[in-house]
Design goal:
This protein is α/β, with parallel strands linked by helices and 335 residues long. The protein has two domains: 2-216, 3-Layer(aba) Sandwich (Rossmann fold); 220-280, YebC, transcriptional regulation domain (Alpha-Beta Plaits, 2-Layer Sandwich). It has ten helices and 13 strands. It has helices at 40-47, 90-100, 106-115, 130-142, 160-175, 187-193, 211-217, 230-239, 259-268, 283-290, and strands at 2-11, 14-24, 29-33, 55-60, 75-78, 148-152, 179-183, 196-201, 204-210, 221-226, 245-246, 252-255, 275-280. The strands form three sheets. The chain has a six-stranded mixed beta sheet, sandwiched between helices. A four-stranded antiparallel beta sheet has the order 11-12-10-13, with helices on one face. The protein has a three-stranded antiparallel beta sheet with strand order 2-1-4, covered by helices on one side. α3 crosses α4 (130-142). The chain starts with a strand and ends in a 45-residue tail after the last helix.
């Protein structure tokens, strides 16, 4: 278990993390969400003693990270995909980590196979693509076969098959009773992966709840009905005490109504329904609603009135095919 108690971090007059307290429990995938500048990366760095808190503490199985004699056997973390020695091969990068934590060298080959990098194990990591670097970072987190895993943007740079693989890997590890803590800006992916959510804004805790409860409490739930007998349907709904709003295409929307009750009501009055569906907001919509007051950077409408586009049975085996390595050009680096 990870226990965060009253965690605070100040940089001069700026409060990056503000008296944050929560627990990350084993057996579930816990998503860590927040807008840019919310303090997620700072919090994760303090969990690993890479930054010292101004006040408060983080315990991993009851101890500080710095008190763990062989930390990779307790917690594996991926915070930066390219945080590897570029002049060393993938195998030697992992071998150095293994030797520092008294992990058998045979484990290096195992995790390279698990993430699909066996074919490039002897290649220097400086020639790896972002996706390959991400796989190598995941391999380093898995190296000590730890009970706790912490990932920051684990799908960044992965192809669709790789995203599917890491999603199933995290679910399988959680089902095995391990503690999985993952931060991501990809709401659609988080909705498919996480069971529990911890949401922060401006360094403060906004939510600590299940995925289902978070969406239900921070979004609109309604039923949609469409019928060739629209006027009769509206009269029947009004008589039954339902407030229906007519939208484009003649669709009626009713907040907080159960589709079963509406279907039975229409059937009793012999009204034909062409559509009867339950609608609920996505995780992204619920997240945007909750964090609207905590967003540090706001974009504005582009010319023409449209907003610019934004970034957008579990198996343990390796991904189907790793991305090809390439040397980054000056253009890749934004020069």
């Amino acid at each position: 278990m990870i226990e965060v108690e009253g965690l605070t971090k100040r940089f001069g007059r700026t409060v990056a993390v503000d008296h944050l307290s929560f627990r990350v429990r084993p057996g579930v995938v816990t998503g860590f969400l927040g807008p840019n500048g919310a303090g997620k990366s700072t919090t994760m760095r303090m969990m690993l003693d890479l930054d010292n808190p101004t006040s408060g503490s983080v315990r991993i199985d009851g101890r500080h990270y710095r008190e763990l004699a062989e930390p990779l056997k307790y917690i594996g973390a991926l915070l930066e995909a390219k945080a590897m020695h570029g002049g060393r091969s993938a195998y030697n990068n992992l071998l150095c980590l293994a030797q520092s934590n008294r992990i058998p060298a045979s484990r290096v080959s195992e995790v390279l196979e698990m993430v699909g990098l066996t074919a490039v194990a002897k290649k220097k990591s400086k020639g790896f693509s972002l996706g390959m670097g991400q796989r190598l970072g995941i391999a380093s987190a898995l190296l000590g076969d730890p009970e706790i895993l912490m990932f920051d943007e684990p799908v960044n740079g992965l192809d669709p098959e790789g995203i599917h693989w890491i999603r199933n890997l995290m679910k399988a590890l959680a089902q095995d009773g391990r503690t999985i803590f993952v931060s991501s800006h990809l709401m659609s992916e988080m909705a498919l992966t996480a069971d529990h959510l911890i949401v922060i804004g401006q360094g403060r805790l906004l939510a600590n709840t299940s995925m289902a409860d978070f969406i239900r409490e921070n979004s609109r739930s309604y039923a949609r009905l469409r019928s060739p007998q629209q006027e009769q349907l509206k009269d029947v709904l009004h008589a039954a005490g339902f407030t229906a709003t007519e939208t484009a295409g003649g669709v009626l929307e009713i907040d907080g109504a159960a589709t079963e009750e509406l279907g039975e009501l229409a059937a009793r009055h012999r009204i034909v329904l062409h559509e009867l569906s339950s609608q609920r907001a996505s995780l992204e919509e619920a997240f945007m609603r909750m964090t609207a007051e905590s967003v540090e950077y706001h974009s504005h409408a582009a010319p023409g009135g449209e907003r610019p586009a934004g970034p957008a049975g579990p198996r343990w085996g390796p991904p189907h095919q790793p991305e090809r390595g390439h040397r980054r050009s000056r253009r890749d680096e934004g020069a």
